[in-house]
Design brief:
Layout: E1 3-8, H1 17-30, E2 34-39, H2 62-67, E3 75-79, H3 80-85, E4 98-100, H4 105-109, E5 114-117
Parallel strand pairs: 1-2, 1-5, 2-3, 3-4
């Protein structure tokens, strides 16, 4: 078994990217691989509470994020500085996350065998 880290940097509802990366995450997890997610930059908005993408004709990916636990994807890391720079904190997010500081990210990434960044 390998440890996979998926780094999400793009905001939600920015085209098909988020849907495609979530499909890859679920497929990887379905093959009994250890999968974690890191939200950086505008990626922190992926889990922001109170989004209504259906109002602008976009698919709601929040349901997929909520299904991650079924696939044993429970390690979701969020950069503290990315949250602060966007006026958010962990209470604004729809799932529990593990907060990491910018200076800890490289060390955290070294623990993974495969990193997908987009």
């Amino acid at each position: 078994m390998k440890n996979y880290l998926f780094v999400l940097r793009k905001p939600p509802h920015s085209g098909v990217y988020v849907q495609e990366i979530l499909d890859i995450i679920l497929t990887t997890a379905a093959f009994d691989q250890k999968v974690s997610i890191m939200l950086l930059d505008d990626g922190v908005f992926q889990l922001k509470n109170g989004q209504h993408p259906e109002n602008v004709g976009m698919k709601d990916t929040a349901a997929i994020f909520n299904a991650l636990e079924i696939y044993d994807v429970t390690d979701i890391y969020t950069e503290v500085e990315s949250l602060r720079e966007r006026g958010l904190n962990s209470d604004d997010l729809s799932l529990s996350v593990q907060l990491v500081h910018r200076n800890e990210i490289v060390g955290l990434m070294k623990r993974f065998d495969v990193i997908f960044a987009g």
